[in-house]
């Protein structure tokens, strides 16, 4: 995928937690300027990174950002976005989210944002751990929901294309269907293994070692993220039912075979 139009962007970030910090370092490296605001005070960190940090949301919105990146948690997005004083915006702005669900932020942004704001829904399928050695061949999903300023949108997408990401354009609905069968399923299996308190043993097979890795990887993410994947992806409920049905089917097959063998 080629994004020929590119310019240096002024990118404002709402929510400057670990993922936003991770993304901003690459954006700065590419020559983009960053402003940030967050519930917690990141003044010292932003000063160190060369980022303009605003405690006041009004001042943040008045700083003429080309792009405003929403890096909140899934569960806090509604509260955050509905509290933003959009009347302080001085120009039409591209709003971009990076949440792990897509229909929910899309619908919320279309409902709440000013009508002259552009909307780009994205999901970088990587994070600070998987992307610590670079983003080459890591998947970046996006959906151009409402785009009038193609140059700004293209320049933002170029950030990820330049780093070698596998650029994947798809609808928010298609993303959520696939994510329910992959990301949510993985997190659910990891949480089940965590509840079972599985640990390495002296006789582990390679397959079991992978299960331990899944448990440990998903346990590093918050339960808020996991519950957000369930609550705000309408396809996740079906997957949870499928897991329950599959487990019950296997259980019945095992007891049926046991009864046949022991008769």
From TrEMBL:
Keywords linked to the UniProt accession: Oxidoreductase
Residue stretches making up the Prephenate/arogenate dehydrogenase domain: 9-263
PROSITE patterns: PDH_ADH (PS51176)
One GO MF term: oxidoreductase activity
Pfam families listed in its UniProt record: PDH_N, TYRAAT1_C
Family matches, as PANTHER family: AROGENATE DEHYDROGENASE 1, CHLOROPLASTIC-LIKE, AROGENATE DEHYDROGENASE-RELATED
Protein name: Prephenate/arogenate dehydrogenase domain-containing protein
Organism the protein comes from: Penstemon smallii
Lineage: Eukaryota, Viridiplantae, Streptophyta, Embryophyta, Tracheophyta
